[in-house]
Design a protein that fits this description.
With 156 residues, this protein is mainly beta. It has no helices and 18 strands.
Length: 156
């Protein structure tokens, strides 16, 4: 039961609630405890134990204990795949892990979400591949690329 001290309550998955008070959003758990105070302009559902949050025009992630593990410093964020989330800062993309470490620096013009432990990345008009350790295992030197089940198709 969520106490009536909020202007709006939205049900999320797994017993969580997004709550709004005076135009700011927070998160309440299934026991009715305010885990994330109403300080964000937007909150989204939990995925992989983290919820996307927005403060102003900057995005980050909070965990289920209410800690902002990925600070609101990114222009855009995506959900986690293979333990990493794509993040954009200053027009460049990279990836962060669930502890908030930028495993792949924000230096790419475009990134695809991880699939089978690999992500396609673009630098200029050339494509490459990075792994979950942040290593560029296929250099950005190809005009066309595709990855399926850890097999890359490349064209120069």
């Amino acid at each position: 039961m969520v106490p009536c001290r909020y202007d709006e309550v939205r049900a999320l998955r797994d017993g969580w609630f997004a709550v709004r008070r005076e135009d700011k959003w927070g998160l309440v758990d299934e026991a009715g405890q305010e885990v994330v105070s109403c300080q964000y302009d937007e909150v989204r559902d939990f995925h992989w134990g983290l919820a996307v949050v927005r403060r102003g025009d900057q995005w980050g992630f909070v965990n289920q204990e209410g800690q902002e593990v990925v600070p609101c410093q990114y222009d855009e964020v995506r959900d986690f795949h293979w333990g990493l989330a794509a993040v954009r800062r200053g027009g460049q993309w990279g990836f962060v892990n669930q502890e908030g470490q930028e495993v792949v620096p924000c230096r790419y013009d475009e990134v695809w979400d991880f699939e089978s432990g690999l992500a396609v990345v673009r630098l200029g008009d050339k494509w490459g591949v990075v792994n979950t350790a942040g290593e560029e295992i296929v250099q950005c030197a190809y005009t066309k690329i595709g990855v399926k089940r850890k097999i890359a198709k490349l064209r120069r």
